[in-house]
Design brief:
Neuraminidase, about 625 residues, Immunoglobulin-like, six-stranded mixed β-sheet
Length: about 625
Amino acid sequence: MKMKTPLFSPGHRSWIRLLGGLAALAGSLLPGRAAAQNLTLGRLEGEAIVNVPSAGNFTTIIADNATVGEPDGLTYDGNGDLYIANGASIAEIAANGTVSTFASGPALDGVEAVAVDGNGYIYGANELTGDIIKISPDGSNQTLFAQGLSEPEGLAFNGNGTLYVTEYSVNATVQINPSGAVTILATGLNGPSGVTVNQSGNVFVANLANATVTEITSAGGTSTYARGFVEPYGVAADNFGNLFVADPGNQTLFLVGAPGATPVNYLLGGAFSVAFPMNVVIGAEPQGTTAAAGENVTFSVTAGGAQPLTYQWLQNGANISGATNATLALSNVTAGNAGSYAVVISNPYNSVVTSEPAVLAIVTQPTISTQPQNTTIFAGSNTTLSVSATGGGLSYQWFFNGTDIDGATDSSLALSNVALDQAGNYTVFISNAAGNVTSDDAELTVNSVPPAIVHSPSNMTVVAGKSATLSVTASGTAPLSYQWQFNNANITGATGASYTVAKLTPANTGNYDVVVTNAAGSVTSKAASLTIVVSVSIVTQPKARTAHIGDVISFSVKAAGSTPITYQWLYNGAVLSNNLITAGATTSKLTLKFVTPFGAGSYRVRVTNAAKTVTSASVKLTVKK
């Protein structure tokens, strides 16, 4: 366990290691009530383990025992034997008081937490290696159950055999299924240490870093369940909705009776790990089955927990008279035996667990009540074929033209974006434990969808010498064919969804459309106009001029290309505009109505059309006096 600064005597190991104790999910403590079973604590002072029969009272079970060592984590098995994780091994105090080392070795050097599953296997969390070690009930065999965890500090099982593990260094809690698969349950915790699970299956984690207890739902949702501690570590839940929190920072065991309730002092003095005698834990759930009328059926469950265990089987939520064993045998079943079966398991410590429901289906020979129907659709559409049948426990397999359809094993067959080649006969084979039946043929007719224009070709203006590509988007049943037209005449070879004209000339100017055809008909797009623009060019450059003050002179340029053509005259690089002296500044002819000395300089003209801009040669005006 981790600790920021020592809280108590420097002669002991970190007090935080005391509080990795895990609840084994039982108990009967309510505020102000005596315990129906003893709450067991581990204390570092004197390396003691004590029983707490009621609030404020305790008796010492053992102290200063080298085999037990420091009680970092505690748990009970179903026989009432207590297991202690002490950092180097797992010790055992048998129900008769005998003390022994249950398991040790290199794999357990660093074990800080311990838990027991429904089959009596012991699990130890090694915070140094990040391993979870599974130990046989007699302690003779150790196997690696899970690895790669980040400082596992707390362990707790739920009633269905899922193991919850807190990972201190990454602020997370993970869950491990009985086969050892690890998945993340919750992240964003704050120094998680002790962990426990209540009778409802909710997980509670003590957070060292922010002095709170977090409640985690089975879906991984988190909320703050309790606050107001100093350094909460060990947690344990009883069977009455109470949560016990060991807080060495306060040297107190707190009781929290409800979400958000103020923690109540339950026992003062020292720090501790905490555990109850073992709750009932189901090892193997009863399994649902299907049977034909007249067959015999057996349901069974395996469970662990403080003994003796009692059983009560239920059908559809009602007690079955005399069904009080781990196995329920039903002989010569009839339709009345169909339903949901579960078993309630309890022990003398008020631990009660209900198994998952197991459904019994009683089947008869399948009979088709509604046959699949003939259907006609357009290609690309969706359709569903369905059948209705009775008999119970039915399995389905659809066939197309006598060949089974992979994955088509429901009472309905959904076909999406149907193609022409999916037209044909469909049947369904229905079976159960009592027999089988095949439906009538359902004929599916698939018609082509006529073509439709989704996007017509667009109008274009393109410079001569360049290329232009016209395109169309059409819908309808494939295959679609295309024929482009220029001014209503077919263009040879233009039979794709797009048409490209290379090295355009003015002769290519005109209207283009496309006819789209399939087996169901044809449609013509809207016409797109293609306009070819010839780039502007200067045919005749302006000429230099010499003039006297007061003369009237002109500069002119001749240009060719697609109209409209615009002009802009420049004087010494600056744009000219019309005024008292200048006229025609934006025409092909610039006139100076009165030459002045200031008019001397360089003149040129910028000529523009839709395709290009060119600038004339620069010519000079010389002014004589």
